[in-house]
Amino acid sequence: MNITIIGTGIYGLSLAFNMTNHNILMWSENPKLVSNFNKNHTLKSIINKPIPNNISLTNNLEDITSADIIIIATSAKYISNICLEMKPFYNKSIPICLASKGLDLNTGSFLSDIIKDILKPKNISIISGPTFAIDLINKEPCSLSISSNNLKTSNLIKSIFDNNIKLRTNNDIYGTELCGSIKNVIAIAAGILEGLGYNESTRAFLITEALHDIKELLEKLECNPKTILSYAGIGDLILTCNSKKSRNYQYGILLGKKEPKKKITNYLTNNTTEGYDTLIAIKKLIKNRHINIPIITIIYDIVINNKNPELLSEFLIHKD
Fold first, then answer.
1. Quick check: 94 and 124 in contact, CB under 8 A?
2. Is residue 177 part of a domain?
3. Residue that is last in its domain, among 150, 171, 192
C-alpha cells in the first residue's frame, strides 16, 4: 500500500517506522532536508537512527496523488495552511487520517472540521493514544485509538500498522480528538505541580479531577463520555502527566519553579509544546459554547495571565 505522511517531525517519522510492509512517502516543506535525505538516506537532524528503506521523502505536494491513504502528522497550528496547499492536488476519495493533536488556535475548532471544510474528504479518521515517538521508534508495545464513522476506513488504518501496536476503534471522532488535545493541557498542570515540589499523590489527585472535568466536557459537547476511558483518553493522560519525556510536562515544571520569563519563553520557542496553543484554543471553545470548566480557567490564568502557580494546588484542595 502507498501511504503518504504529511510532516517529517519526530512523531510522523515514528509512525512511519511502524509501517514496515508499505511504501511510505513523507512530505516536508524543507527542500534542504529532502535533498540531504535523497543523498544519504538519513535524517540526523531529527533522529540519529537508520531510516528504513521503505521510507522516502518529497517536498512536492503533487506527489500525494499516488497515495492510498494520507496521514497528517504536523503541528496543529499548521493544519489549515497545509490543507490549503494540498487542495489543488488532493483527490477526495483518498482517506485522510489525522494524527495531530490540538485544536485550531484561531477559532477553537476541531482539526477534523478544518480538514473537512477545506479538503472535503469522503472518509476521515483520527488516531490518538499514549505513544511517545521514541517508544514507537524502538518498537515497544504501544496502543492507539482509531475513530471513524466508517468501519471500512477504521479497518484500513488498522491494517497498515505493525503488530506491536494495538488499535481499538470507536466512532466518536470529536471525543477522541478532544481527549488527545486536552491531555497536553493537563500535562502542563502536572508539570506545574512537580515544579512546585508536589509528588505523585498530588499528580494522581490532579489526573482524577481532570478525568471528571473532561468527561463533563465530552457530555456538554455531545460526545461519548466513555471515550475518556479509551487509549486516547485516560491512556494518554496517564502517560503525559507522569513523564519528563513530555515537553508539555517539562514546560509546566518551569512554570511551577517560577523560572525567569526569558527561560520559559526560550523553552516555548525551541520546543514544540502543543499544550500551550491547545490551552488557548480550548479556552475559546468553551467560551464560545458557554461551558464552564474551572480547571481550564485556572491553568489558563497561570500560563497565559502569569498568575501564581500555587493557584493550582489551592484549586485542588478547595472544598466544594
1. no
2. no
3. 171
Range of the domain at 21: 2-171
pTM flag (> 0.90): yes
At 9, which CATH number? 3.40.50.720
- Rounded to whole angstroms, the Cα distance separating 277 from 282 reads 9
Cβ neighbours of 131 (radius 10 Å): 23
Residue 253 CB neighbour total at 10 angstroms: 19
Share of the chain above pLDDT 90, in %: 91
Higher pLDDT pick, 65 / 98? 98
Q: Per-residue pLDDT averaged across 180-206, rounded?
A: 97
Number of residues in the chain: 320
Q: How far apart are CA 96 and CA 94, in angstroms?
A: 6
Residue 9 belongs to a domain: yes
Query: What does the alpha-carbon distance between residue 320 and residue 317 come to, in Å, rounded to a whole number?
Result: 9
Residue 278 neighbours by CB distance under 10 Å: 26
Mean model confidence pLDDT for the chain: 94
**Integer Cα distance of 79 and 108 in angstroms:** 13
Q: How many domains does the chain have?
A: 2
Distance, in Å, from the CA atom of 311 to the CA atom of 244, rounded to the nearest integer, reads 22
